[in-house]
Amino acid sequence: MNSPFLPVEQKSPFKLVQLTVKVGNPGVVGFYKTFMQTLHQTLGWRYPVQISDGSGGCVGLNGQMEHKLVFLREHVPRGTCLVLVGHSVGCYIILEMMTWDPELQVVKSVMLFPTIERMALWIFCHSSVQLVFYYGASDHSYPVQSHQEIKRDFPNGDIRLCSRGIRHALVLDTGKEVADMIVEWIHSDLQT
User: Fold this and answer.
1) Which of the listed residues 15, 45, 81, 178 has the most CB atoms within 10 Å of its CB?
2) InterPro entries, from UniProt (predicted)?
3) Which has the closest alpha carbon to 136: 125, 144, 128?
4) Alpha-carbon gap, residue 13 to 10, rounded angstroms
């Protein structure tokens, strides 16, 4: 189940936007069903919501990035603004995609429980794209002190620490709650 779309069911008075979600590794798209449906429904079915896993015969992170960029070029109409949402290693892939293809029209990118090293964060301070980083307070993949260091190094960044007890495997039990938070964070970026 690679790259399923939740189609637009109504005409949108807003600008042409697509939400694209890049899952962690290994990303089982089926676990994201509630998360995706909540995003789509909460946004009033006005925007297509698409998800991508690491399949498609791609080996390694570079292969996944290339596959995703080809998919976007072939299936997303030119001029479409993108909201990119990454989870876990999907955050790294999104940051790299924006580096590889600066022509992508990304209006905002949301990084959920990112497992990226400081090297990948250089794009954060050089990017014109609005980035939101959401770290887990009890995430075993990324310690809290790393969040604190990044917050110190990028004081103007939108770097958040979870206060709701959401765990790294968010799609298992809090997909709806996280989708609602994302809609709150991106809503103003979707207006014309």
Assistant:
1) 178
2) AB_hydrolase_fold, LDAH
3) 144
4) 9
| φ, ψ (nearest 5 deg) of residue 21 | -110, 130
Q: CA dist 118 to 74, 94, 149, 156, Å?
A: 32, 15, 10, 16
- Going residue by residue through the chain, which has 192 residues, state the pLDDT in tens, using 9 for 90 and above: 344 544 444 444 445 778 888 877 656 788 888 988 999 999 988 888 888 765 555 667 788 788 888 888 888 888 888 999 988 888 888 888 888 888 888 999 999 988 776 545 556 655 667 889 888 887 777 777 777 887 887 777 888 998 888 888 887 888 899 999 999 999 888 875
DSSP result, the chain: --S-EE---S--SS--EEEEEE--SS--GGGGHHHHHHHHHHTTT-S-EEEE-S-SS--HHHHHHHHHHHHHHHHS-TT-EEEEEEETHHHHHHHHHHHH-TTS-EEEEEEES----GGGGHHHHH-SSEEEEEE-TT-TTS-HHHHHHHHHH-TTSEEEE--S---SSGGGT-HHHHHHHHHHHHHHHH--
Contact 154, 79 (CB under 8 A): no
CATH topology of domain 5-185: Rossmann fold (3.40.50)
What is the per-residue pLDDT for 8?
44
What are the phi and psi torsion angles at 177 (to 5°)?
Answer: -60, -45
